[in-house]
Structures are given as C-alpha cells and as structure tokens.
Amino acid sequence: MRQRATRDPKPTPAGRVPVLTTAVLLLCGLLAGCGASADGAAGGKIELQFSWWGNADRAEVTNEAVELFERRNPDIEVQTSFSSYNSYIQKLATQAAGGNAPDVMQLDYRQISQYASAGLLLDLDEQSAISTGNVTSAMLRTGQSSGEQYAIPMGRTSQVMVYDSARWQRAGVAEPEYGWTWQDWSRAMRELGEATDRTGATDPGWSEDWFEVWLRGRGKGLYTDSGKLNYDAADLAEFWRTTNELSQQGAVSPARQTTQIDGSAANMPFGRGNALSGFTWDSAVGGFQALIGDSLRLAPLPVGPDGTPGQYFKPSMLIGVSANSPHPEAASKLVDFLINDPRAGEILGVSRGLPVNRTIRENITPTLTGLDKRIAEFQESLDGKLLAPPSAPPQGDLALQTAFQRDYDHVGFELQSPRRTAEQFLTNARSELQR
Amino acid sequence: MNVEAPDQQVSPPRGRPDSESAAADSATARNRPRRREGAAWVFLSPWLLGAAVLTLTPMLVSLYLSFTQYDLFTAPEWVGLDNYVHMFTSDPRYWRSALNTLIYVLVAVPLQLAVALAVALALNSIGRGKGFYRSAFYAPSLLGASMSIALVWRALFNDGGTVDDMLSTFGIDMGGWVNQPGWALLVVALLTIWQFGAPMVIFLAGLQQVPNELYEAAEVDGAGRMRRFLSVTLPMLSPVLFFNLVLQTIQAFQVFTPAFTVSGGRGGPADSTLFYTLYLYDRGFTASHMGYASAMAWVLLVVIGIVTALLFRSSRSWVFYNDKG
C-alpha cells in the first residue's frame, strides 16, 4: 500500500523539475570529474607516464631530454611528473598497489626486490629495445632480482667523506687518503676534537649506511645474497660502542646533535658547523659545498683492518617499466634512450649521478666543471679498487634503516647499553625480514 | 529520519479511504512531505556519496585489513587476531607510543583548556580593542594547523635555536629542547597549548551567556571575585567546558602533525615523542604493515570511544544545565 501511494502522486510539475535537474547536474559533475583522466591515448598517439623523484634542476633537464625523445618518436607522447623522494616513494607504492604505476618509473635500490617479487616490474631482458652493453655487469646486477633484470641503473654514486680541509690543516691533522683504516680515522677524530673547539666528525653510528661500510671492511655485509642478515649482535654492539665512546670523548658529535640528523645537509653536525667532517653519498656533496665553501674536500671512507675496502659503487637510482604498462615497447624505447642516447646523455649530464653508461660517462667527464668535476675525479680514483656492490637489499630494509637511527638514540643518550640495543635491533630486524 | 516517522504511523489507517475525494486528499497530504524528503535526499546525495565512498567503505576495509597481513603489494593474507595479539603482548614500542600519547593528553588538554579559559576571562572584561585582542589570540590556532609553524617551533627550540640563545644570555645553557629525550614531549605539548584559540572562542561565547543578574545577586550577597568565579561562572560555563574537554581530548589522542614535524618523522629523540598515530604511520607507511596499522587504528577508535563515554558519564556529576533546574 505504502509503495503504491508513493508512486501515485500528483506531482506539481514545477516542484519536480528542479529536483530532477539538480540530480542530473550533480551526476554530470561527478561523471565529468571521473572521466577526465580515463583515456590513455591522445589523438592516436601512444601516451606514456614517466615519473621520478628529484629537485627542479633534475626536472628541467629530464623534461628537455624527454622533449627530444618525443621529437624523435612523433607517435609517442610522454607525461612526466616528479616529487621529492619521500612523497614519491609513498605515492608510487599506493599507485602500484592500485595497479596504476606509471609506465616508466625511477626506482630506488631498496625497492627493486619488493616491486619485482610482487610482479610489478617488467622483465627487461625480453625487451630488445634496451641495450645494456655499456654498463658493467656488477652494476647491472643491482637491478636484478632472482636472476632477472627488472631495472637498469641510471647513475652511480659512492660513499664519501667530506671534510673542511682548511680547519684540518690548522689543527695539524694529516688529511686522509685512500687506504686509511678505521683506526686511523678514530685517531684523527680524537686529534681534531682535542685541537679544535668542534668535534672531528658527524657521529657515523646513526646510519646503517656507514655501519655497512664498516662491516664490509671486515668481510661481512648487511645481507647475504638471499636476503638474510649477514652479521650478528656482537658486530653491531662493537660498532656502536666504538662510535659512542668517540662521542663521549668529544671526538665525534654528541647525541643531542646526532639525533637531529634528518638526511639534509643543513641538519648534519658537519653541515651546521659543529663538526669538521662527515660521511655522505657523493650525489649529496653539493649540499655541503653550499654550506662549507671552497675548503670542502672529498676523501674515501676508511678501509678494514686488512685493507679491505668497505665502500662501493651503488646505483644512485634505477629505471624500470611497469608490468601493467599497455605499451611496453614504447616504454622500453624511452628507457633505452635515457640510458644510451649520446645526446640525451649530454642533456642529462650528472643530474642523476655519474652515468653508468661507460661511453656517455667518458663523453661528458671532460665537460664537467667545479664540484661535478671533483666528484667525477673522486670516482675515477676508486675505479678498480672497490669490491662489487651487494645485491639489492631485501624487503623490510626500509623499516630497518629508520629503526637503526632510532635505536642509536638509546645508546647515545645512555638509556641502554650498546650490546642490549644491538640485540633488540636484531630481534626487530629478524621479524621485519620474516614478514 | 524524523520526517518519516509520523508518516509511517499515520498512513495505514488512511490507506483505505471510503471515498474518492478522501483518497485524493490523503494522497496529497502524504505526498507533500514525501516529495520534500526526496529533494532532501537529492541534495544530501553528494555528501552521502562522499561519506559512503570516502569514509564508511575505507573504514570497513581497514577493519577487514586489521585481521590480515598486508604489505600493499601482495594480496592481504588472513591472520585472524595475530595483529592484535602481537600488539598487546610483544611490541614494547606499541606500549611506549600509547604511554607517550596518554602523558600528552593528560598534560596538554587540561593546560590548554586552562589557558583558553583564563584568556577568555581576561578578554571578556576588556572594553576597548576587544576585536583586535580576540583576533590576536586566535591567530595561533589558525597558524598552528599548518606544517610551517611546527617547523618554526622546531627551529625555536632546537640546539642553537632562538629560545636556547635567549636563555644562554641568562646563563642557562640547555643545548636545545627538541633534541633531548626529557624535553621533546613537553615542547610538542607547548605547541598545542599555544593553540588555544578554538576553545577560547567557545568559552567567550559561553561567558556572554551567563546572566548578569546572577553576578549582581552574588555581589549583593557579598561574594568576592574568586567566589563569583567558582560559584557563578564555573557552574554556568560547565556545559561549554564539557564540550571543549570532549573535543580537545579526542583531538589530542590523534595528535600527529606537530610530533611528526618536530621530531623529523621519527618520534625521536629516543622514542620520546613517538605518539600513537606516529607509530601507526611508521608501521603502515614506512614498514608497509598495513594490516597491523589498521588494527592499531581500530584500537585507537575503541579507546577514544571508551574515554569519551567515561567523560559523558562523569559529566552527570559536574555539568550543570540551566534549563533542567
């Protein structure tokens, strides 16, 4: 009865029309909002999405290279987008989870195994458009997961110690050169701490990166090739005990400065002028140059007791193709262009680190000036000396990186002994890696 | 919903009309509210659609995810109550974050309300320049919602920051506040307390509702300033106080932005500003344990629900509603 009553109205037309119109208008609005981005091909052209992280300078040269690519391939249109590292990583994860990853994407070393094992990346071995003849096999291996090539490294970077040479000289401390050991480093730090009103260095105990170099110098490493932990609590406790003792002695930065480190050069004790040196990646040296000035020098990291070098050449970033891309050939063409095309190499320069492509690297090295030139010379001085880079770290390492700095706070503020903190870190690490 | 109720009760007897005209009459009578109701639904539809698609669905999905292990990349895997069990039995950092949040709520909320009330009382008695002072005191809460003020806060209380510099001229050398485990939480709480604008405005409105004759009567009875505040202002203001308390408590439990920014996203130093939501974010977005993060979110929802219910229960004994008496 009720139902019929409602369907049996005598509507005053004037009353109904606005309601219907409003409903239709609202719906149109909704549909229009959703429909705008649905189409993949614009005017019969293949449309590719390409995104990366980086600053405006990198975006400018990348877009210039992409324009050249579009001129050479009139049937392909490339939509580019970029953002800062942290938001890029999160956005990409969300896109990938929803099956909407961009066709071509810049990837971090630590993402490869996760993305590859989830089937999100295209196996590039099967893409004939991509040639990798000019990239060393050790470097290529960093883009592999279970033997398949899922990503190609774009640039290479290495760990480096940056220091203020003027102040080192004034303090009468010998400047470092390749082959100095961790013991030499500790001694230099103590001397600097005593001779100046600053500390010798940013305390390296905060980062897994520097622990890794220390470990590799002792013939170990963070992970085995199968992604298991390759060190034990005793190793970590010894590392932390050493760095923390130096911190207590005023040889490296105190905990209340070390805890402020957030990755930016400006918040490093060295960048802030509280310390006289610091470890970093050579791709990040520019930030320190701006703060320290012309007396900034680059030196290799210390080696192990028997001379084993701990630092290595790491891909500063890699490039891969989404497994869901509707245009894998076009996407592969773009990847090949970015890695191998000589003109693209000239445009891109060292915006992504020194290119891994040997020919391109040799082509552009003479054109470099200033800091870029010094970084290139620094890398050249290490060529042939370093051991092969480790395989891509396992899924879960991202969480451990932040846990490492967090837990070192407990050592630095003397809330827990290095030994106990190391054990806790490893318990946590095992469960992160298992999940 | 209220519109429909009378219609349901009335329509069955009228559904069997005796004459044509009565039927037509009742049809129009029924039809009018019903059509209006239809229009209401149409106009509500954007909001309803938003609520269903953007709030309700994600909530239900997260409830499901809380019983799974889900890393965003591979399909969620059902693990039953594992997430909840792990959270309560073998995750010390979880308890650390819960404790930090509790301390924060207990410190920041009462202090913020006290400051808001004090400033509201002061502003209420000002005659000239009322508008200016109100805006000036309200401004921090407009700024406070943004990341930038948290960054400024961090710079102010940092090692070598403004506050540090000022204090060192008096011979107090702290070496920074946000970078020391004992102080960081208080600095974050201070940022919240400083943003007392919203409760202050509500207090001001409440103060203006207090009838003047009550004060006059109290004065006649020889009540001093303090007496008048305790016996007139506070009871009359208690509903507003209660409203502010509930709102600020719920907000404080969900504190995220200031701690995230001040501690550089880590909840440091040494986990001292690791709030519940910060740890939730860390689990979900840094460690990709979306299932665990979802479980944490649901526990937070339940706890906030319980705390709010307790506040409502306690209100019976201290909130005074004028209209009842």
Automatic annotation (TrEMBL), chain A:
Q: In which organism is this protein found? A: Actinopolyspora alba
The keyword Metal-binding is annotated on this UniProt entry: no
What domain of life? Answer: Bacteria
Protein name from the UniProt record: Multiple sugar transport system substrate-binding protein
Keywords, sorted A to Z: Sugar transport, Transport
UniProtKB/TrEMBL annotation, chain B:
Location in the cell reads: Cell membrane
Stretch list, region Disordered: 1-32
Residue stretches making up the ABC transmembrane type-1 domain: 98-311
List the InterPro entries hit by this protein, alphabetically.
Answer: ABC_transporter_permease (IPR051393), MetI-like (IPR000515), MetI-like_sf (IPR035906)
Biased composition, Low complexity: where in the chain?
Answer: 20-29
Segments passing through the bilayer: 40-65, 102-123, 135-156, 183-207, 228-247, 290-312
Alphabetical list of SUPFAM superfamilies matching this protein? MetI-like (SSF161098)
Does the record's keyword annotation contain Transport?
A: yes
The residue stretches assigned to a coiled coil in this entry are none
Where does it mainly reside? membrane
Tell whether Membrane is among the UniProt keywords.
yes
Query: Which GO biological process entries does UniProt record here?
Result: transmembrane transport
Which Pfam families is this protein grouped with? BPD_transp_1 (PF00528)
Membrane topology designation:
Multi-pass membrane protein
Q: Which domain of life is it from?
A: Bacteria
- State the UniProt keywords alphabetically: Cell membrane, Membrane, Sugar transport, Transmembrane, Transmembrane helix, Transport
Output the Gene3D superfamilies linked to this UniProt entry. Answer: MetI-like (1.10.3720.10)
Q: Which GO terms describe its cellular component?
A: plasma membrane
What family does this chain come from, according to its entry? Belongs to the binding-protein-dependent transport system permease family.
Q: What is this protein called?
A: Multiple sugar transport system permease protein
